[in-house]
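Exercise (ungraded).
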Amino acid sequence: MADTYKVGGMTCGGCARSVTNAIGKLAPGAAVTVDLEAGTVAVEGGVAAETVKKAVEGAGFDFGGQAA
Amino acid sequence: MADTYKVGGMTCGGCARSVTNAIGKLAPGAAVTVDLEAGTVAVEGGVAAETVKKAVEGAGFDFGGQAA
């Protein structure tokens, strides 16, 4: 079961890779899927929302919380 | 005096911000200027090339060494 979060500021594949790497560094076991068009990031592997927030914001993107 | 490095994979402002943040985290005092068109990053503040490499690669971009 993946948790999906809104992430603002991702506009290209480089951004997607950057966010994926940032989450992977704080949560090595996570499977991360970025949907650029939707502006969302799905994280699988039981990662705390706070950890995702820290990774996303640390990489310079906007964390918009859990996607509806 | 800034040191300028080639960085591959940056294609938009989000990438630029991501690389800037990554360098800033490993070298808090550095002044970072990204030139997207040239694919270069200028780092001011006496930061070791190895530190820049680590930050750039950690963020998911390609470190191409010192720009000519």
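Further reading is listed at the end of the chapter. For now, observe: The domain at 2-66 of chain B is CATH 3.30.70.100 (Alpha-Beta Plaits). Residues 11 and 36 of chain B are 7 Å apart (CA to CA).
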